[in-house]
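Today's session is about reading a structure prediction critically. Students often jump straight to the picture, but the first step is always the sequence itself: look for stretches that repeat, for charged clusters, for runs of hydrophobic residues. Only then move on to the predicted structure, which in these notes is written as discrete structure tokens rather than atom positions. Here is the chain we will use throughout the hour.
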Amino acid sequence: MEKVNKILAVNFGGIGDEILFLPALVSLKKEFPKAKITLALEPRSKCIKDLTDVIDDLIQVDIKNKNKYVELLKFIFKARKCGFDIAITAGANKFMSIILFLTGAKKRYGYDCGILSRILLSKAVRLNKNRYAAKMYHDLVSPVTANVTELPVINIPAPEKIKNSVLIHPGVSKMSVQKGMIKTIPAEIWAQTIDLLVQAGKNVMLAGGPDDSDCIETILKNVQTKDFENFYGKTKNIADLAILIGKAEIFLCSDSAPLHIAVAMGTKTFAIFGPTDDKKLIPPQVTPVKAKDNCALKPCLWEKRQTTCRSLDCLKISASDIADTVLKSGL
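Below is the predicted structure for this chain, in token form.
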């Protein structure tokens, strides 16, 4: 391949998607260590830059804006001026193949979404959704590098562990809740879980982000014990949260971005899963905590529907089941 100086990566999604995309970028950096990597992403995910040094520059594209087509046109013109040698897109639709072609990048890689993608891309990569998402994204760079990065890698040094500690991060993004995508247990169950873990002698810590204020408030109203540390509001940014996750021996969370940070930090993690597919969102090192329901549609969110059902049997998980699963880990 010709000398590569500039690489464009396009991934529109939440911060969790960007963390899962990091292995592909790390492998690209290993292959082309002198190349500048620019990531095009939504403004809501710009904090990814605080977790890694493989991204040299960001292009923010507000596709949630009512003028999203204007935003995309601005992005195309900006990309054309940069003169990228390689461009990859994580978008699994033919529209993204068109966008990538219009950027003028010399070599273009994306998923095979039909004949148009095969015409417009230098290589249309087979999309395999039935695997861990980080590996799915990594397939995009397989035409240009033999490097393989299995898990997300972030530039946060591993801190000293707090003995016998369990860090709980109960929240999910407010956007998912507003869209009717319920992916976690009620706050009252989280409160009961804290009580049970404290009773078992665990050093429990509670954390949350800006979207979690209602959840945290409900937990604090319902928890019976006061013998735990509340770090809500004390982690000022995503890097602070990563450090706190790294300090914990055990991390207990929902299906959300902090889960992927915990994977990168190497912290033993237990994650609540209901309507989403744990096999696609976590590596084997993470333990999914799931309801003992018999829903024939599970996992349904994104697989069969865009919002969760009303019954949410898949999220009827008791606090005792959650606590028992964590305590049986032996940590």
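Discussion point for the tutorial: The domain at 6-141 is CATH 3.40.50.2000 (Rossmann fold).
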